[in-house]
Amino acid sequence: MNVRPSDASCGAIIDDLDLRSLDDTGLAGLRAAWLEHKVVGITGQSLSLEELEAFGRRWGPFGDDPYLGTITGHPHLVEVRREPDERAPVFAGNWHSDWSFLAAPPAATLLYGQVVPPTGGDTLFADLEAALEALPESEQRRLETLTAIHSASRSYAPDGRYGRSDVGRSMTIRSDESARATREHPLVRRHPETGRRTLFLSPAYTVGIAGMGEAEAAAVLDPLFAHCGDERFVYRHVWSPGMLTIWDNRCLNHMATGGYEGHRRLMVRMTVGEREAVTAS
Ligand code: OGA
Ligand code: MN
Predict the structure, then answer these.
(1) In terms of CATH, what superfamily is 2-272?
(2) Could you tell me if 93 and 234 are in contact, meaning their C-beta atoms sit under 8 angstroms apart?
């Protein structure tokens, strides 16, 4: 397997695999590369929805995908779609880790580039382990004592980003009052497979800190959000048609970018993998 790491602290491209015929040894190798690089793009696949699902199932149990419409007959597949003339803001265009507001968020997201625009539409990834490591020891110790509050409210509540005011979007998104629910996770977590420590927060889904008022929490969170998005920790993932990208939600944030007006972009997405409680140690 030819793994080409990016110049950033995370991210790699693999261009000599056929996922339809990958044996168990190959799968173990791919999994190791994924744990090391946190996000891997496997180029040149031509997968039917059934083949994509079958591969996802080998990666781990399927997650639940609240708020997003799934593909008819494929309850675990979501189309991340944008039409050439679409005016609504780009879906997922702010830093987040998928479904971190759940009690047990999905370890991995698999995104398959079915229709990839000729330019733009890159996905940005922020390495939250590198972001933690770059903080002074004393700051790391302080953050380790804090519990973050996550919620989908800013995105999926009726008054959120994808709520009532979100018109003209080709994707099916169902905002709901249930998005206001909150969930607590440690602000610094330990990766259950690699044992590495990482920050775990995002401006999309982290709405507060347990035991702190709004202003006090914002004073902690806002500089941290800025820190995590710093270019030192960011890898820009460039797509090609037929690329399957697998990222680790436990130690990365990610966001979509635009820049492909006049072109369709169509990705097929699944959340897969162990659904573990987020733990500090
Ligand atoms: C997602 C997501 C990013 C993109 O599907 O969860 O964040 O670039 N997508 O489409
Ligand atoms: Mn996402």
Answers:
(1) Clavaminate synthase-like (3.60.130.10)
(2) no
